[in-house]
Fold this sequence. Notes:
The complex is a heterodimer.
Chain A: H1 5-14, H2 21-38, H3 73-77, E1 83-84, E2 87-88
Antiparallel strand pairs in A: 1-2
Chain B: H1 8-16, H2 22-40, E1 43-46, H3 48-64, E2 75-79, H4 106-114, E3 117-122, H5 156-163, E4 169-174, H6 180-186, E5 189-192, E6 212-217, H7 220-230, H8 248-251, E7 260-264, H9 274-289, E8 293-297, H10 305-320, H11 339-350, H12 353-366, H13 372-395, E9 398-402, H14 418-422, H15 429-434, E10 438-446, E11 449-456, H16 462-476
Parallel strand pairs in B: 2-3, 2-4, 7-8, 7-9
Antiparallel strand pairs in B: 1-3, 4-6, 5-6, 5-10, 9-11, 10-11
Amino acid sequence: MSISKEEVEHIALLARLELSETEKELFARQLGQILEHAGKIEELDTKDVEPTAHALPVVNVFRQDKVGKELDVEEALANAPDREDDSFGVPKI
Amino acid sequence: MDLYKLNIEQASAKLRAKEITSVELTKSILDRIEKIDGQVKAFLFVDKEGALAQAKEADKRLATEKDGPILLGVPVAVKDNICTHGVPTTCASKILNGFVPPYDATVITALKGEGAVVIGKTNLDEFAMGSSTENSEKQVTGNPWDLKRVPGGSSGGSAASVAADEAIGAIGSDTGGSIRQPASFCGVVGLKPTYGLVSRYGLVAFASSLDQIGPLTKSVTDAAIMLQAICGHDTSDSTSLDYQPPNYLDSLKNGIKGLKFGIPKELFGEGCQDEIRDSIQDTIKLIESLGGEVAETSLPTFEYALPAYYIIAPAEASSNLSRFDGVRYGHRAKDAAGMIDSYKKTRAEGFGSEVKRRIMLGTYALSAGYYDAYYGQAQKVRTLIIKEFADAFEKFDLLISPTTPTTAFEIGAKTDDPLQMYLSDVCTIPSNLAGIPAISIPVGLSRGLPVGLQIMGKHFDESTMLSAARALEKEVDFKITPELAG
């Protein structure tokens, strides 16, 4: 199985990744190989099988709607590549 | 005596008996790292000052507390995908260059609360994606038994640091075998707890439904000690379960007699080295001689575990890693033409090859038109694997297999072929998909390289798994003795 260069470019855009021409060729080949191996799961009959998202059933974990001890603004901004006053600075949208 | 050679149990006894101080022990470890880590390259960051300050505090507590925690004053290493307040956390990725977490992961809070001394951060495959630690963007770690070979991965730095006596114990994370596989390659003990037993808060997420933090140690007893310290319910992680853990140290005395062991024949399949098979056969005889019952069994869906994993894990990763966008922390590309371009360039510059490959794979598997065939089907396979485990555990108390199909391979041997690399996790992946606990213990050497036995248990039955592991460890009497020129 192989993936076309156009498909690779489409996926890369969805994933917000800029790829070089070499990477596009490499991933087209390697993703094809990996997906071919992964495609083995299609052999299994799963008609009446429910999907599992989590191995153990944990549902609806609630907490009180109370403010706890959270990061203050300076702590939250300490790692920011760019800031403006109390906000993260970003390039023009 | 060389204090760095001690294990947790021994070090703790000496600290409590006032034979040694935590500062002495910590200095011994720091000297050892200074001397040999240039060769092993297990550490990405050694927090000398912080460690000595923590050791001084521990000594104060040791002077006043009569029955302090077992880990009080004991130096431990931490995989560098676990957040440490004020200490760089890089995930061995360029995208987190310069990132200093403003908080501790819950496991770090727990370890520090016990008085353990956090000495530094260990190398890993970038974002824990890999089986050899070669995917680190920082450095290549050597296997202390043969520096030309890989330590396994992704917790390769943690495993190597323990095997090379550069840490008394360590913690790592395991998504598809990332604690057990390197433990096996480096001849140490590695334990992946039941999903939900240990909080993941502060662990940089790779595949959230599979990730668990666990210990890498010099003995089974040490693994029980560390597990006890880090387990328990945490409201900051909504997948952590509200469960009262038993006393794991007490369960170590229970032995093997009367326990029923199943051997899934699918995990001894093609690709398994003859020497590994022989070594595991010897261990099976040992189990029988100790009064355990062993029988072969079949879990046919295991064949589909690896392919299902390589859909589910990258799918979750592609979603989790979207947070690395150069906005709030880490690397940001310069001279981008607007926001979208900034994301694309930042991620292109910041992520290494394997991480990009998995993000691409995961995005593909989740994209319109392919979701049902790949992700949906993989989740159904997961259901079947869980059911097979449940059926097997009706008949058996524990399941055993080799931890890895081969011993440690040479650096560079599999870097060009991702699929071959993925195959080294074939025995460890099923337990992550099912969320059950599993441990790897060293059971012998093959051509000078350690062989690991994997023992898998029922959900939350770490106790039975640990008692069997401890009984076998006593008989096997494996010595961690890699020869490293200092």
